[in-house]
Amino acid sequence: MRFAWIRCVLWLSALIVAGTAAARPAGAQEPPYFVAYGQAMEEPGNLEINFNASYGTQRGGNDYIAYWTEFEYGATGWWTTEFYLDGQSTFHDSSVFTGFRWENRFHPLMKQHWINPVLYVEYENTTEADKTMKEVVGFDGQDDFVPRNSELNGTDHELETKIILGSNFKGWDVSENFIGEKNLGHEPWEFGYAVGASRPLRLEATPRECTFCRENFVAGAEMYGGLGTVSNFTLNGTSHYFAPILAWRLPNGWNLRISPTFGLTDASHLFMLRFGASYEFAELGRKLRSLFQ
Amino acid sequence: MRNFGFCGAILVVTASVALAAGSGGARGKAAGATAQSAPNDKEQMYIGRADQIRAGDKLFRQHCAECHGADGHGIGRAANLQSPHVQAKSPAELVEFLRNGNLWKGMPSWAGLPEERRWQIVAYIKTLRAQ
Q1: 3-state helix, strand, coil in chain A (%, to 5)
Q2: pLDDT tens track for B73-103
Q3: How many CB atoms lie within 10 A of CB A68?
Q4: CA torsion sign, A227 to A65 to A218 to A265?
Q5: Most A CBs within 10 Å: which of B49, B62, B99, as the mutation test of the A interface?
Q6: CATH 3.40.50.150 is the classification of domain A4-291
Q7: Partner A contacted by B115 (CB < 8 A)
Q8: Which of B76, B115, B120 has the CB atom closest to A286's CB atom?
Q9: Terminus-to-terminus CA distance in chain A, angstroms?
Q10: Among B1, B20, B67, whose Cβ lies nearest the Cβ of A283?
């Protein structure tokens, strides 16, 4: 019974993969980060589906694999909405569905500037067993993941806000995020940050279709961590991570990403390997509307 | 000990960003200051050149054709790129329009694409008037 939801996700994934065979891909331009957000919005009407996983090792507690599926939709040119489903499997323990998230990003300025702000609001309904670590805030650390899944029953209702700053210069994407997260129970505001930089290995496209040419690869790095709480804004006792990233865009529209992630402080997880695959369905909104007209 | 690790990572990130800026500048000089060239120089580098048009055709199919159609005639609210209104724009104006988009009217910003690729797309768009 515990694995029933995993079977559902696998069936859904298989249907989506089969669906891509009949769909026309769209070219995504989002930077490849797993945690940091760039200023790029989803193109209006496009649906991007991301399958991501994070294999984590800890100094205490068992290794685990956390996985999450993202459904990212461009509602308008200035508004992107995204829905997440999270789960995790801990070795020598169990697999559990850990909840959902719904996020919205708004691009308030209609023109590009040196630094472009994006406002981010997310509602999270996840259990304490969630190990996706889509952000690190407050004093989040590896100690949170040590208890067995059966002991992590509590559900968190959280509001997460971000100010995303993004710049594009000479092919580089540079993104900075300042994160504020509030548990809707009686918990203080927690803060965190994420920064990232990335660049295609070749800026110009070549005239021919190619799979392994440098223009299809994007390399970069991101760093993120907690900044304490509203009453104790500090770096002491917080966890921080550094993660180089490599992304590969295949000619058939699939994007693959991999990112070895290294914990930098005693509170951090020792090592994580994040990887993901995404596919963007172009103009899905228009096609669905046309079915009902 | 952990402070060394944290400071070390900050140094790595700072150095990466500095290298990014540095390598960009060096490349700009070596390749004829691609990103800082005047629009006329860019036009000579991209507009009307067969290899750049073919590259732009590939990029157009990846990023634009789903809304604007394979021949650029426009689908739904997407603009007809063959129209005199679009074709009358200078290449530099079109490149700048691609960078900003028109978010209120559904045209996304393509600032995430390197400027070189936006010029290649415009090189292809400029050939659509002949069809």
Answers
A1: 15, 50, 40
A2: 998 889 999 999 999 999 999 999 999 999 9
A3: 24
A4: positive
A5: B62
A6: no
A7: yes
A8: B76
A9: 41
A10: B67
Please indicate, yes or no, whether residues B24 and B77 belong to a single structural domain of this protein.
no
Contacts of A180 (CB under 8 A, 6+ apart): A137, A160, A161, A162, A189, A190, A191
Helix/strand/coil for A280: strand
Contact of B45 with chain A, judged by CB distance below 8 Å, is answered with no
Task: Mark whether B18 and B61 lie in a shared domain.
Answer: no
CATH number for the domain that contains residue B48 = 1.10.760.10
Is A171 in a helix, a strand, or coil?
coil
Cα–Cα distance for residue pair A262/A242, rounded to 1 Å: 5
Whether the predicted pLDDT of A66 surpasses 80: yes
Beta-carbon separation of A171 and B24 below 8 A:
yes
Option in A44, A111, A265 nearest B108 (CB): A44
| pTM, entire model | 0.84
Nearest to A251 by CA among A279, A276, A275, A274: A279
Give the model's pLDDT for residue A21. Answer: 46
User: Which residue segment(s) compose the domain that B45 sits in?
Assistant: 37-130
B108 and B80 belong to one structural domain: yes
**B109 at A interface, C-beta within 8 A:** yes
- The predicted complex's ipTM stands at 0.86
